[in-house]
């Protein structure tokens, strides 16, 4: 794992950090930025579909954590709800 330090600087109205050689993703690369406590994590977005899959997985994980160990009782439905209609 590569480790180095850098200082932040102002770029317009934003705070920025220059990625040292070996840490960059290449010019024009799209990255996802996440804050995790005092860490900022940059993740290269390979494509739109991959980003949707990661977001869906994170949402499912959050929902499982919110639900806890409680099982949700499923509704039992009557399979004969629609009456049999001849000719249809």
Characterize the structure shown:
The chain has 88 residues and is of the alpha+beta class. It has a domain at 26-65. It is 23% helix and 23% strand. It has 1 helix and 4 strands. It has a two-stranded antiparallel sheet with strand order 1-2. Strands 3-4 form a two-stranded antiparallel sheet. The mean pLDDT is 83.
Outline of the structure:
The chain has 88 residues and is of the alpha+beta class. The protein is built from one helix and four strands, in the order E-E-E-E-H. The radius of gyration is 24 Å and the shape is elongated.
Topology:
Elements: E1 8-11, E2 14-17, E3 31-36, E4 39-44, H1 48-67
pLDDT averaged over residues: 83
The beta-strand count equals 4
The topology string of helices and strands comes to EEEEH
Regions with pLDDT < 50 over 5+ consecutive residues?
none
Distance separating the two termini: 66 Å
| Main sheet properties | 2 strands, antiparallel
Number of helices: 1
Q: β content, as a range?
A: 15-25%
Rg, rounded, reads 24 Å
Share in helix: 10-25%
If strands are numbered along the chain, what order do they take across the biggest sheet?
1-2
User: Quaternary status of these chains?
Assistant: single chain
Shape: elongated
Find the structural class using helix and strand composition. Answer: alpha+beta
Short descriptors:
two-stranded antiparallel ribbon; 88 residues; alpha+beta; 4 strands; elongated
